[in-house]
Write a structure and sequence with these properties.
With 453 residues, the protein is an alpha+beta fold. It has a domain at 44-84 and 283-451: paralog of FGE (formylglycine-generating enzyme) (Alpha-Beta Complex). Helix content is 25%, strand content 12%. It has 11 helices and 12 strands.
Amino acid sequence: MCIKKLLTLTVALALLTSCGTGDKGELVGVKGKKWHPEKPYGMSLIPGGAFIMGKSDDDLAGVKDAPTKTVTVRAFYMDETEVTNSEYRQFVEWVRDSTIRTNLAEMADLEGKEPGNGDIGEFAYKDVKPEEEMTPYEKYMFENYEGEIRKLNTDIDLIFDTSEYPDELYAEVMDNMYLPLEESYNGQRTWDVKQFKFQYTTMDIQTAAKYRELSRSDVIEQEEIEVYPDTTVWIRDFAYSYNEPMHNDYFWHDAYSDYPVVGVTWKQAQAFCQWRTLNKNAYQKERGKQHVNRFRLPSEAEWEYAARGGLQGATFPWGGPYAINDRGCFMANFKPLRGDYAADQALYTVEADAFEPNDYNLYNMAGNVSEWVMSSYDPASYEYSSTVNPSVNDTENERKVVRGGSWKDVAYFLQVSSRDYEYADSARSYIGFRTVQDYMGTEVTKNASKRRR
C-alpha cells in the first residue's frame, strides 16, 4: 500500500514539474541552439545525386578495373583547390610550435620555473597554480589524471630571434629543435623536422559496428605521424635528372606558396584532416558554437562524382573527349604529345587555381597533381561495393587509390574514371590531396539544386 502511494506521489510531482516548463505537457522535443549551414572556407558544396561511375565499354582494359555502375552519393563540401604548400605549412608550423611549447613547459616544470620573472617560466603550463586557487573540476582532473591534460600557454608568443632568448634554459630547448651544427651547410641551420610529430586519436567505427561485442577501447586507435613532407621525392622519383631546385625550394619558399603540396603520404594527408578538424572545432568551442563535421579525404565515388561536375558520361571534367579546347589550348597540366612537358606552359606543377574550374567550381580535378582518396585499391571493388555512398577502405590493404592524373602523366590518367594507386606510406612529387566535409542534412541534391545553401 505504501509503495502505491509513493508511486502516485512521484507521478504527481512529475506532472507538476512539467507544468512549469512551458511545454503544456506536450512532446515538443529538446530545444537546442539555432543552427544554420556554414560553407567552409575555400570549399564548394557538391549536391548529392546519382551518376554512372566507371569506364565506358570501349575502354577494354579499363573496364575490367572500373566497370560502370550507377551509384548515389550524399551532399558534401570539397576543397576548390588541392591543398597548397601554404596551407600545409600552417599545419607543419602548428605542430612545430606545439612541440616547442610542450618542451618549454616541460623544462619550466623540471626547473620549477613559474610565470612572472621574464624567463622560461612564462611558458609554464597554464594549470600550474596553488591548489586553493583551483576550481573543483581542475582539482579533480589534476589529482585523478596526474596532469595528463595540462594546458599549454599559448597566450605568449614564441621567440625565434636568438638575440632575444630570455634565458639559457630557453636557449637549450630551442637548440635541441634544430639539427646539430655539424649537419648544417651554407651557413643555414635547419629545423630537425623529424621532431614535428602530430598525435591524434581515431575510432574505427566500421569495426565497432561489425563486432558489437567489442568495447569502446578496442576500437580507439592512437596515431603519431611525422608531418613534414618528403622533399627528396623530387630527386628520388626521377633518376638521372636534375631537380635539386625543386627539392631545395618547392615546399618552403613563398614563390611556391599557392602550388599544391607534394611529398605527402596518405597517412600524412589523413593527419592533416584530423588537424584541420581539431583546429576548426577549437575555434568553434571558444565562441560557444556547435562543432563542425570532421574534414576527411573523399571516397573514390565522391571524388569521381565531384570531378565530373554534373556532366554524365564525360571523359574529362570539362567534357571531352579531347584535352585541348577549340582554340588549341591545353585544358590541364599534364604530359602532352610525346613527352613535351612544357607544351601546356608548365614544366612541373602550376598554381592550385590554374586553368578553368569544372561546373562545381573545382580546379585541377584533372592534372597538376594526382590526389589521394580515402579508398583502398582493389580491382574488383566496384563489383561488391554498395550503390549508395560506396566506400571501400580496407585497413589491411596498404594500396590506396589516387585519382586525377598529374603533371607527369599522359592524358589517359586525367580521365575522371581512370584509377591508379600508391602505397599509403609512399610520398611522390606528383601526388597531393584535397579534403571534403560532410554536409549537415540530406536535402541538398542535384535534382533540387535551387534549395542549396
